[in-house]
Amino acid sequence: MSIITVGIDLAKNVFAVHGVNESGKAELVKPRVARDQLLKLISKLPPCLIGMEACSGAHHWARLFQAQGHTVRLIAPKFVVPYRLSGKRGKNDAADAAAICEAVTRPNMRFVPIKDEHQQATLCLHRTRQGFVAERTATYNRLRGLISEFGIVAPQKVERLLQHIPAHLEALPAWARRCVEDLLVHARDLDKRIDDYDKAISQVAREDARSRALMQLPGIGPVSASALLASIGIGHDFKSGRQVAAWIGLVPGQYSSGGKARLGRITKAGDAYLRSLLVLGARSILASLGEKQDRFSRWARELVERRGYWKAVIAIAAKNARMAWAVLHYGEDFRLTLNIEAA
């Protein structure tokens, strides 16, 4: 019998490969495959289903295997663990490959969308910008901590912090003053780099018709639009917008039993970056409501009054996630409307 399913445990240099035939019997067990030999091994196999954990390099290998005619599925590592434990196997590469091989065949398994090179390049912009933002925040916090050692308590807002520091520089010891000045220079350099990445991301968003369509949604700007497009593509890996909202972690967790439904806090599953962008966009919508009387604004205002500010923010963010999927999935067939309907 020919191999129909293959599980691959990815690594830097040595990979484990496990393949089974139609009856579920192992036909291919390779606990150690060198990196330069993996593609050669897979290219010799007939078209089959290949499963891998969604980790570093997974999308690259997925594209290579798809070019060989295989069907590739990426699985979140946490979904593979139960299948390794069910076989009472120890934790090693071969056991992981066998567990992946079993998990990828499950009918209700959830998979990670495979990204093309353009999507990954766009996400590189976002990840690098995100890193610079985090570094800038750390720099200002370090600055506050240093000057507090000399009795200078700085304001929390960056604008007020920058206005507050110059008046106290002369009172600092020489070496401390040098450290503060260097940190300020570093923060200004990070500001410039972040501005450059903002411009690059905006350019990427403007050049793509799908991103421009996403930016018509309230609360979604160039950063959110390009991140959504790079993360979910045209949405073909999701059956509905609700699945996208659940994938991002904007739906309540269920703790139901005995016929009694119990809904808890949002799951916060999936991509925290996407979730934060959608939440920030929802907050900007509520901040700019004013006295607007269009249907969307009335719905958002009533939602805040009925359920509270933060629940309204999450509801709007989840709504935007569902609408974004519809825009990407249906394209020109989707007629964008801001009318809020029951989802």
Automatic annotation (TrEMBL):
Protein origin, superkingdom: Bacteria
Domain Transposase IS116/IS110/IS902 C-terminal per the UniProt entry, residue ranges: 212-286
Protein name: IS110 family transposase
Classification via InterPro entries: Transp_IS110-like_N, Transpos_IS110, Transposase_20
Organism whose genome encodes this protein: Uliginosibacterium sediminicola
Start and end residues of each Transposase IS110-like N-terminal domain: 6-149
PANTHER family in alphabetical order: PUTATIVE TRANSPOSASE FOR IS117-RELATED, TRANSPOSASE FOR INSERTION SEQUENCE ELEMENT IS1111A
Coiled coil residues, start to end: none
